[in-house]
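Record format v2
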Amino acid sequence: MISKEKKVKNKEFHPNILCFCCNWCSYAGADLAGVSRFQYPPTIRIVRVMCSGRVDPAFILEAFKDGIDGVIVTGCHIGDCHYLKGNEFARDRFERFREVLKIFNLDKRFRLEWVSASEGKRFAEVITEFTNKIKKLGPLQAI
Amino acid sequence: MEKVGAVLVIGGGIAGIQTSIDLADSGYKVYLAESTTSIGGVMSQLDKTFPTNDCAICILAPKLVETGRHENIDILINSSIEKIEGEPGNFKVDLTQRTLRLDQNKCTGCGLCAQQCPIEAIDFFNEKLSNIAAISVKFPQAVPLVFSIDKDKCIGCGICKGICKVKAIDYELQNKEINLNVGAVVLAIGFDEYDPTPLKQFGYGKYLNVITSIEFERILSASGPHSGLIIRPSDGIIPKKIAFLNCIGSRDRKQGNDYCSSVCCMYTTKEAVIAKEHMNIIDPTIFTMDIRAYGKDFDKYIERAKDEYGIRYIRRRISSIKEIPDSKDLKVYYETGNGKIIEEFFNLVVLSVGMQPNQQAKELAQKLNIQLNEYGFCKTETFTPVDTSRPGIYVCGSFATPKDIPETVIEASAAAGCVNVLLSEARNKLVSKKELPEELDVTDQPPRIGVFICHCGINIGGVVDVPNVVEYVKTLPNVVYAEHNLYTCSADTQTNIKEKIENNKLNRVIVASCTPRTHEALFQATIREVGLNKYLFEMVNIRDQCSWVHMHEPEKATAKSKDLLRMSVAKASQLIPLQEQEIAVINKGLIIGGGVSGMSAALNLASQGYEVYLIEKEDSLGGIAKNLYRTLENDNIQEYLKNLIKNVENNQLIQVFKNAQINSISGYIGNFSTNINYGNNNKSVDLELGIIVVATGAKEYQPNEYNFGQDQRIITQTEFEKDLFTTDKVKGVKSIVMIQCVGSRNEDHPYCSRICCSEAIKNALKAKEINPKIEIVILYRDIRTYGFKEKYYNLARDKKVIFIRFDETKPPELNIKNKQLKIIVNNPDLGEIEINPDLIVLSTGLVAPIKENEDLAKMLKVPLNEDKFFLEAHVKLRPIDFATDGIYLCGSAHSPKDLRESIAQSNGAAAQAVKILSAEKLVTSGLVAVVIEENCIGCGSCLEVCQFNAIELIEEERTFEDFTMTILKSHINPALCKGCGTCGAQCPNSTIVIKHFGFEQIHAMISALLVQS
């Protein structure tokens, strides 16, 4: 039987974070973090998409609805997009979407970051920092 | 002798990579010989690239992987050429492949050996700024990903041999002889950085805080020796004041090389900008003679560096620097405009070193029997820019002349274009095509998922409890089989996977191992070999993104692996087979513009047997070259042009339409159609074509400055050239003033026209030749005689042509008093100077034909840049293509360029075009977006975000009960869709399905993230 149950332990809070990576830059940056052995907390679960422009705000709402504690969307730096402007559309879209998240007081649990294929260290730092932030915020209470 | 359909490319930098991909994509077997252990060249070492600040490895790595995977490319690392015999079309080449001391075919690149190796060696990739193990890989993204042993450092302890699970290491492995039979050879060996050690005055090697620009590039890199932290060598503190010294080893007739290295002004600016971006407290100063920002959008970059980043440019060449013994700071002396000597201190000095010939150049030239030029670079001619002195052997990139990345890529494609012409009859003779079984239809079957989990030696297995994960995976829905492998990527495991698919009737396969970026294609090919659609595959990254980043938390890494696999199983259950569509190709090309570029592209294609339509708006071919007589290097342009036109007009396969006008263009790659009017009678014709080349050129700026048109003694450089080469008027002239940058680099045209400095010097030299007593003064802002053109700048100065610089804020003024021409120029150092010439020659730049370009861009649905030149797909790596497939760009339509560069780019455009024309059919990717039309409301949101013109709104007649109306439906052309998925996220009605990354699949992954069994 499969049952929905949150992984919140009594003693220490280990957040569950959903991380979207674009195939060309940030996923490669995440790989480089590994190759360079930059350690970060085992809190994120990466979903690879071809472009950050693919990420539909609906996915983020759904994640929060399911009880995921934080969502981070990563892509190429502005100007580096493999598909020319996908990340720009993502940026614009999520700027608007952040306003929606504010209504539910979820905006602090969402982040958009640009990570290049050479920024393995930065990837690890971004994840560590975001994890700490979510830890401070505590587990997501049911909306 | 029969022609051989194989090509040897020597040098695996960006030039060699591009040529290899272009040739392999158009039906030739390619051997890519690289002297080090990985392809990638200097570009792989760069942090960012100008003028867009693109991350170099982000854009290069996909090319590396593409080259590594290409079925028609064999990469021969650690190789050098021994001997070559034969003739164009059929050469025999002997190579030596130096031993890596391990078996390249066995090494999986897992890296265990490097972790255990007790010996440190110098990391040459990081410019000796850090150490690596004596057994190592060149850089993390290396292709092929194999390790090698530094034989000078290795102590033969045998630890690596003991730990290597695939038994790849063999100290006794000897060098290997390789014998190849190829039709052509392309040389792309690149350049060496100038070594400033002999220039004692700069103290490189002696003063700790004097470094070279390539060392600084590694320091800037996030994957460099200090992870992108800018610290200076002597004490590890952040250097607040950095001085960049330009022209180290370049433009130096006494000590270095007298040519210009073409790239240093720009990369220095880039390094200064990036340093400032990294740490705002850094205050960079660039010491330079001229600022040679002559490329497309380069001047804008310099302006931004000055205005936005506060980069200080000082127009002085520094003669020497001194170290302060205690602080290790550096003292630099220079003279100000009013003659005052200034002493300034810097915390770090970066020497912007130029390019010099590759140290292998001489030996290689001897072995291949090709000529080098006076500087030791490969000798080429203006009208055949990629031909070496030996037929059948071509050259590209900075082995021919110092050049930047886009120009290198252009030449690389040009070399491929010329090989195409030589070997077209042998095309497709040596490339292999795998016979595959017919695909199994699994659409109605319930998912039967097989999971293969990799230990990667102990890379994964040492952290993650792999057997435990396997047991867990077996409990997940739809999983019917799971196992673990020591190396899932090894050849024997591929056979094993195929057996397991057949025995267990698997219809979805998951591999949990390393990264899909390098290994997905391998496993997709494996499952396809037993009839499974390749899109029924998912990969889980439990090494790079799990075991390697959670090395000290094995339990949590195991739990994460389980989570990732559960998400992947959820997605795999939702996967459907995707079809790659085949599109027929019309094997004819359309070339727009009958100048040198258009004609060169047309001839290239026609000589490979393709029909070409060449359209020209004027009543004769030749374009702007009709007004040119000689090049700076004294090549006869008119003679060349006459022959070119004759060859085009006599070619049976080229149909020329003059006085032509395009009315419409529609269609997509492989299947365009156009309607044109042409000829004196304005006849109309419809044409069908597979590709389009834009070669519409540029036109000379018609000045309204300096009383032009009102006084016959004030003429343009083109008019002067005509007088010089067709009359003897100049014999009666005593003095001439030439004014540079008229109508260029100003508010209206904020770009450099690139050719005017050379044109002025060419004409000045010719005038001096005819009339040695003539006085010539050239008023300039920067003299941009890049590359070997610098020689003529020197020559002009030797011939007493006077060069006076003026500042952009104080351009020269013209006064005419009593019919006497008077020019007043304000030099920043010398103040006001008055000259009374007989003749004023205005160097007017090139401008884009705005109206024509706008109309054409609209019809082709391609973009223009701010200056109305056509905008390529990617400034660095796709300088010939548009984002829209099947349309290519060459010549001055791209940006102002000289004949040599235009000819190169048109051959490059032909090389891109031939990839399409030579294909019987094109295969589209299965990863595309599809509109579910019944739910589409025709709002057009998707259209706005698509950068590839893949989407159009189609009108449909809909009949309702009592009325009919026209509604709009979005339609996505799979031939043009790149599968980025942006439209899917933009669609307000969620009615666009992004194949493989669709709502169902991503939804399934998110839902599975928290579910526990």
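Chain A touches chain B through 66 residues (CB under 8 Å).
The first helix of chain A runs from residue 26 to 35.
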